[in-house]
Design goal:
By secondary structure, the protein is α/β, with parallel strands linked by helices. The chain has 2 domains: about 15-60; about 70-325, Metallo-beta-lactamase, Chain A, CATH 3.60.15.10. Helices cover about 35% and strands about 20% of the residues. The protein has helices spanning about 1-10, 20-35, 40-60, 105-115, 135-145, 160-175, 235-240, 265-270, 290-300, 305-310, and strands at about 70, 80-85, 90-95, 125, 150-155, 175-180, 185-190, 190-200, 215-220, 225-230, 250-255, 275-280, 305, 315, 325. It has an 8-stranded mixed beta sheet with strand order 6-5-4-3-2-1-14-15, covered by helices on one side. Strands 7-8-9-10-11-12-13 form a 7-stranded mixed beta sheet. A hairpin with a 2-residue loop joins strand 9 and strand 10 (about 225-230). Helix 2 (about 20-35) runs antiparallel to helix 3 and helix 5 (about 135-145) packs parallel to helix 6 (about 160-175). The longest helix is centred in the N-terminal third of the chain and has 23 residues, at about 40-60. It is globular, with a radius of gyration of 22 Å.
Length: about 325
């Protein structure tokens, strides 16, 4: 028992999640050293197996690898985008959820298993675009049950029960809160450059629609960039365009799950993405994405990926700017 208690104090490795092959290699090494004869052969065999195991762990230890990795998670009718930053840090933009889900189980049943499967043990930057449950519920769960470095938001407060609970959890756990809006200059985050674009200030929009106050930002890595558009509506898109800021991005997280009230032609013209990703639930009751929105995207030659049809979408970008998009993970819902 004393030995077990002593070993339990050892630091936990968080950058490496063993796969089945790794467990097989470890068990084989134990078998070799225990049962093989002569002893020299047993030692050589076990050392060889342990060397292979160590080599397999090297890529995980150097997580990031100078690449920007995006995982648009299939978590039902909501938004949840995991970002692997070039220096190995992790960012999560929104966490999915459902307004009709009173127990807010998206975090424990969908989001947490997805993070574990992807080998994520800490979220360095937990980002909430706005207060609606289909973005907030998973964020609330992680804030209370996961290792989090910082929390970022627009600073536009809400009186909703879940938002107030989130702020209480953040304060109770001592998680720093950072407010982002268009008044802030671009800043470095995890080896990438983050440009806050919207809202213009941390004041509630005149429309009263929380979608119009969505946190919108562009993340740049070398020649590649991704624009996270939250649930921005057409009216807010017009106001953003009127500010005259550059929006051009090679990948677009389509606003508001592909609603017909977003992603207007002038906005798409300004962004000019080569790839677009729509987060939506399979056969959702809102009939999203709208056929008209998909048509506007495809008319411009934009490659469109949808979590309702493709499952979780992975996009990887090096400093040269090209996106490699695939769908190897399937659905987490």
């Amino acid at each position: 028992d004393a030995v077990i208690l002593y070993l339990a104090r050892a630091p936990v490795v968080t950058f490496y999640t063993p796969e089945r092959l790794d467990l097989l290699l470890a068990c084989s090494a134990l078998f070799a050293v225990t049962f093989l004869r002569p002893r020299r052969a047993a030692l050589l065999a076990s050392l060889l197996l342990l060397f292979v195991l160590a080599v397999r762990g090297i890529p995980a230890a150097g997580a990031g690898g100078g690449l920007l990795r995006l995982y648009f998670l299939s978590v039902g009718q909501g938004d949840a985008a995991l970002v692997g930053l070039p220096d190995g840090k992790w960012m999560l933009v929104d966490g999915g959820g459902r307004a009709s889900e009173t127990k807010a189980r998206v975090g424990s049943r969908l989001l947490l298993p997805a993070l574990r499967r992807l080998g994520v043990r800490r979220i360095d930057y937990l980002v909430l675009s706005h207060e609606h449950p289909d973005h907030l519920q998973g964020i609330l769960y992680l804030a209370g049950n996961f290792e989090v470095g910082e929390f970022w938001e627009s600073g536009i407060h809400s009186n909703s029960r879940e938002y107030r609970q989130l702020k209480w959890v953040l304060a109770a756990r001592g998680i720093p809160v950072r407010v982002l809006c268009a008044a802030l200059p671009p800043f470095a985050a995890g080896g990438a450059l983050l440009e806050p674009l919207w809202p213009a200030t941390s004041q509630r929009p005149a429309s009263g629609d929380a979608n119009d106050s969505s946190l919108v930002f562009r993340l740049r890595h070398g020649k590649g960039s991704v624009l996270f558009a939250g649930d921005l509506t057409a009216d807010a898109e017009r106001q953003l365009l009127a500010r005259g800021v550059g929006l051009e991005s090679s990948l677009l997280k389509v606003a508001h799950h592909g609603s017909r009230h977003s992603s207007t032609d002038p906005f798409l013209e300004a962004v000019s993405p080569r790839v677009a990703v729509i987060s939506a639930g399979y056969q959702n009751p809102f009939h999203l994405p709208a056929l008209s929105t998909v048509a506007r995207l495809e008319k411009r030659g934009i490659r469109v990926y949808r979590t309702d049809l493709d499952g979780s979408v992975q996009a990887v970008c090096g400093a040269e700017g090209g996106w490699r998009v695939s769908t190897p993970w399937g659905h987490f819902n």
